[in-house]
Structure formats: structure tokens, C-alpha cells
Amino acid sequence: MDLMWKARFDAELPSETTSKIHLVDLAGSERAEATGASGTRLKEGANINKSLVALGNVISALADASVAGGVKTKKRSPFIPYRDSVLTSLLKDSLGGNSKTIMIATISPAYLNYGETLSALRYANRVKNILNQPTVNEDGNVKIIRELRDEIAHLKALLAQGTRVSPVGPRLGASVEEKLQRNEARVLQLTQEWTNKWKETQSILREETVALRKEGSGVVLDSGLPHLIGIDDDLLSTGVILYRLQEGRTSVGRADAATKQDIVLDSAGVLKEHCVFENRDGAVILTPLPGASCFVSGAEVTGPCQLTQGAVVVLGTGTTFRFNHPKEAAALRLKRQRCCPRPRGTYLGDLTALRSGENVESKHNHDNLTAQTSEWTSEVVEGQVVEEQRRKEEKEDHSLPIMPQEERPPE
């Protein structure tokens, strides 16, 4: 899969296009008798055939849906079994999505391959029946700019036509010209905003300390500088905030501070001039200003405090960040690989052990042994308590006075 992302001006209009291309080499159906496969190869061929059957079912369903789409009917749209195999799940966007699908069938003129050739031709013929209607999704601002430009052209034509045919009334002419000027100003503003957005994005990505890469279905933003990642409790917040701590001094405060702040926060409990981050020689030190509330990993900070990888920083009453130090994290990962080769996550307790030089695996084994010992001890104590209670009850039973039996009259 290749991702193409292009932003340009087309006929003085901003144009932003994002497209993907999927190049898929489908394996042919496996004939066990012809190949003589056995064991692992036989299982692999069976799995390939299952995937091809699932793909054929999807293609047939899409072809039927395309034919039914041309006829007005009240029936519900047919179900497309994309989830029947991994192959069809991966090809979902390429087959029935907002896309164009092209299939090249490879056939053989040999008589021995007559069945395979006929099957491939039927496959390709069914793909031809899939009729997608791809549309170009454009940015909302770009659409508004295009509509405003069309309206501007229409207003200019009205003014020119009114001037040629008959003099336009002063009131009508003034209203048209006023609307024309408003639209032109709006177009200029939106175009400038779109241009500034792309310039700012490109300037950020050009910096050596920031890299944007794709990893599977996600996008990873790497930063070579120490940085803060916002942890927002607001369920309506959809953005990810990253503040890079440049070499030197980074001030944090509110927008209405006497001096301009490098990081502006409008959260509760944040003072006009709240704190300062000092990045010197690879060490980042947080210094709260007088009256500011700052916490690092749950402990209140009243003086200069050096931050370490993974520290949780809370400014004010609820502004929470996670501190990342790429160089320190790389060194800790290398140390973890040496002492704990098995892949696993690293947690806050592990970081303390790694920094002190303690073996993380040994620490976990010790913790597990301690937990098991504690569990066994609690079971033994509980058993002793139960046994003591039982003995006490037996002792009480033996200490009770024995009542004399009633004498019965002789028969």
C-alpha cells in the first residue's frame, strides 16, 4: 500500500488530495494432486484456497449489489462478507469502497491448464460487474472557497450586465458591490488560513527533531527533543497535544501574563506565570514559581526537580502531562534488553529498577515470590485461627456440667 498526499493551488484554488493505492498479487488456487504437496505445504495451499473462495463470495456479492443498484427496489442492501477471511478484510477499501478496481488475469494457452484458465476468466468477468462510484472528498474550507468564487463570478456578471443593459439603481448596485466585497474578503481569509496551515505543518515536519511515520494503521510522531504529552480528562477532546522542550528555558503560564509564555494553558489552577522548564545538557529541570501548584509522579514539588522518563507532571488542579525523554528512554530500552531479553512492557517500578542497575527480571521474580509467600503466610495464619477457634469450642463443650439422667421406675 502506498499513501499519496498532495496540496497545491489549482486555478488559484487550494486543492488538497489524499489517495491510497493497493497493489495485490493474488496467489492461484492450489491443486494438491498436481503439486504433490504434503504436510505444511498442503495446509498452506488449503488456506490459500479458503481465502480465494472467500474473495470470490465477496466479489459475487458486490457484483449482485451493483446490478441491483441500477434497479429501484425496497430491499435492503445485500450483506458483503468481508470478515470471512483476512484477505477480504484487507481488500475491503479496494473492492467496495471509494475506489476504482482493476484486475489483471494471467491465463495459459496450454490444454493442461484449461480449468485454471476458465476459472480465472470467470473471476475477472465477475470483477467487471462491480460498479463503484468514487468521489473526491475535499476539505470543508476548500469547498466554501469554491462556492464563494462561483458566487463572486455570478455577482460580477450581474454588475456587468446591469451596466450594459440599463443603469443599475444606486441602492441595488451598492448592495451587490457590498456583497461582492464581503465574499472576496472571505475568500482571501479562507485561502490565507489554508496556506498558513500547510506552511506551519511543513515547517514542523522539516525540523530535524520531529518525524512523522506510518506504523500499520496508525501514525507515529517521533520527537528527538524532550517533550510533554497532554493527558486530557475531557471526553470531548479529540486532539493530541505535544509540547517540545527546546534547549534553554521554556516558560508556562496563561495568555494574560505580563510576559509572553512559551506554553499557554487556560486550565484551572494555572497561574499567569506558573513554572519554568530548563533543558540544559540533556537534563530537564522543573522549577515552580511562587504560589504555583506542581506535582511530579504524585509528589508535590516546591523547588527545582529533575524530570525522568515517564514522569507524570500535574500543573494546577487538573492539567496532566507525561514527560518523555527520548535519549534516556533509548538508554533504558538498551539496558532492559540486556537484563530482560523477553519482550514485555516497562512500568514505573521497572524504571526505578533500571536506573538503579537492578535486574528487572530478578525484581519481578522476587516480587512474585514475595506475593506467593505472603499468600501462603495468610493461608497458614487463617488455618491457625480456625484451628484455635475449633479447639476453644471443644474446650467449652467439655467444660459444660453433665446433667444427671432421670431415674426411670422399674418395669
From TrEMBL:
GO molecular function, one term: microtubule binding
Keyword Flavoprotein applies: no
SMART domains reported for this sequence: FHA, KISc
One Pfam family in the UniProt entry: Kinesin
Keyword Protein biosynthesis: no
Domain Kinesin motor: 1-130
Region named Disordered: 358-411
CDD domains cross-referenced by the UniProt entry: FHA_KIF16
Gene Ontology CC entries for this record: microtubule
UniProtKB keywords: ATP-binding, Coiled coil, Microtubule, Motor protein, Nucleotide-binding
Compositional bias (Basic and acidic residues): 358-367, 387-411
Membrane spanning stretches: none
Bias type Polar residues, positions: 368-377
Any one Gene Ontology BP term: microtubule-based movement
Family designation: Belongs to the TRAFAC class myosin-kinesin ATPase superfamily. Kinesin family.
Official protein name in the record: Kinesin-like protein
Organism of origin: Alosa alosa
